[in-house]
Amino acid sequence: MTPSTSTRLLDLLSERNDQVRRMSEQSWNEQSDIQLSNSEWYILATLYQSKTTIAEVTRSVHISRQATHKLIKNLESKALVLVTDHPQNRKDKCIELTSLGHTCYEQNETLKAQLEQRIQESIGQEAFEQLKTILRVDWKL
After folding, report:
1. What is the rounded distance in angstroms from the CA atom of residue 133 to the CA atom of residue 128?
2. What's the pTM value of the predicted model, to 2 decimals?
């Protein structure tokens, strides 16, 4: 990536986020027959270790309802999620990861850990830990 010419924090954060997300997506798509977008990964991460409703997923991912439904249909067609009727509410649907969805998610976590290792090696252990601390702290926004 060409170094940024921006000096604005928000631009720098956005550029790095885009770069890391692209690298993460590319890393997965190069090693798997199941092609997934960052938005699809976002939904899979929301579902990991929990069964929930489509409405809850929509609220938590901050993507439009229509886009969320389309992404869930894509994930369902790839056999990564299972959509079932809600036992108490006929209007709502439950959604959970399939065993393939769990496997893919866990494999992607390994790839993300490798990318983090590359970043740590590039900027150094101390800067890496400082960066994580800075990103975790409450910025009072």
Report:
1. 9
2. 0.84
Distance CA 55, CA 139 (A): 29
Separation in Å, CA 44 to CA 17, 32, 75, 105: 19, 16, 9, 7
Which stretches of 17-126 are assigned E, i.e. beta strand?
Answer: 52-53, 81-85, 93-97
- Can you tell me which residue has the tokens 């369902």? 76
Are the C-beta atoms of residues 94 and 86 closer than 8 Å to each other?
yes
Q: Which two tokens stand for residue 46?
A: 């929301």
Structure confidence by residue, pLDDT tens digits, 67-97:
999 999 999 999 999 999 988 887 889 999 9
Q: What is the pLDDT of residues 91-120, one digit of tens each?
A: 889 999 999 999 999 999 999 999 999 999
